[in-house]
Amino acid sequence: MNEIDLPKPQKIEKLNQILGELKNKGKLLGVLFAYRNGGLIAKDFKEDKDFNNFTSMCASVLESATDLGRTMGDRKVKKIIAELEGQTIVIIECDEKTFLVFDIGYESNFNIILEKIEVYIRKIIFLY
To answer: For the chain, which terminal residue's Cβ has fewer other Cβ atoms within 10 angstroms, N or C?
Structure first.
């Protein structure tokens, strides 16, 4: 059976495995996958947050950055970085409908994730 033909519970399980792999490899505080309208699809976070609000805010930031890119000569957004006290939030568009959010701490190694981000995005998009 092809991954695209998997029942929804198995797709979610596979997606959670991929998010867990991303989190563990990069020693991240958290990672989530969401729809551009702000709807949460899956998450793996160290601490609990108001994920409905957090995901909606990230979607709004992505939309604003996309509009900024259009204003600057129709340039595509690569990643959005918000450096906060004690952590960094990185938003990366997957496709026209979805995006990933990474919560990065001092001990994280995000470069190891960035080196293979396209591979991970393809795996995730293939499921959705």
So the answer is: N
Q: What is the pLDDT of residues 70-79, one digit of tens each?
A: 999 989 999 9
Domains and CATH numbers, the chain: 3-127 (3.30.450.30)
Closest CA to 99 of 53, 23, 55, 36: 36
Chain-centroid distance, C-alpha 24: 14
Q: Which two tokens stand for residue 83?
A: 């450096």
Question: 45, 30 in Cβ contact below 8 A?
Answer: yes
pTM: 0.91
> What does the H/E/C string look like for the chain?
CCHHHCCHHHHHHHHHHHHHHHHHHCCCCEEEEEECCCCEEEEEECCCCCHHHHHHHHHHHHHHHHHHHHHCCCCCCCCEEEEECCEEEEEEECCCCEEEEEEECCCCCHHHHHCCHHHHHHHHHHHC
